[in-house]
Design goal:
transmembrane helix
Length: 153
């Protein structure tokens, strides 16, 4: 029992992506980002798709793989302060529905961006590099691993 906290979870960060409507809100946010980029007059459709993909992947990298700890006061004695949000997601259990969703969504966005840019080499390289920066940290082999000690503390 958690006395003095407004939630029953030891770490609410672990279940927030499974909450009701979260996936729909996420998809609508990506769609809204794309519509805003399309409404800028000097952006062509390929540039808008590439920017949507790159901005989405940059945001996902920062929020899921770079920022550590929780925004909540948790009674877990600080165990979560050294873990990224991806490592806390679903208590670290691999291949859950929310982890699959957040792994597949950048891949789908990558395919859409590649298709609408007509596989132009510049856009393709940018989109591929952006995709790899969010897919590689999601691998189960890299759970808790800090490459070259980056983001260790």
């Amino acid at each position: 029992m958690n006395v003095g906290v407004a939630h029953s979870e030891v770490n609410p960060n672990t279940r927030v992506m499974n909450s009701r409507g979260m996936w729909l809100t996420y998809a609508l946010g990506v769609g809204l980002l794309h519509i805003v980029l399309l409404s800028i007059p000097f952006f062509s459709v390929p540039v808008a798709w590439t920017l949507t993909n790159v901005i989405h992947n940059l945001g996902m990298y920062v929020f899921l793989h770079a920022v550590k700890g929780t925004p909540f006061e948790t009674p877990d004695q600080g165990k979560a302060r050294l873990l990224t949000h991806w490592e806390q997601l679903d208590y670290g259990v691999q291949f859950t529905s929310s982890r699959k969703f957040f792994t597949i969504s950048p891949i789908i966005l990558y395919f859409l961006a590649s298709f609408y840019t007509k596989y132009d080499s510049t856009h393709f390289i940018l989109n591929t590099a952006s995709l790899l920066t969010v897919l590689i940290p999601k691998l189960p082999q890299l759970h808790g691993v800090r490459i070259f000690g980056i983001n260790k503390y």
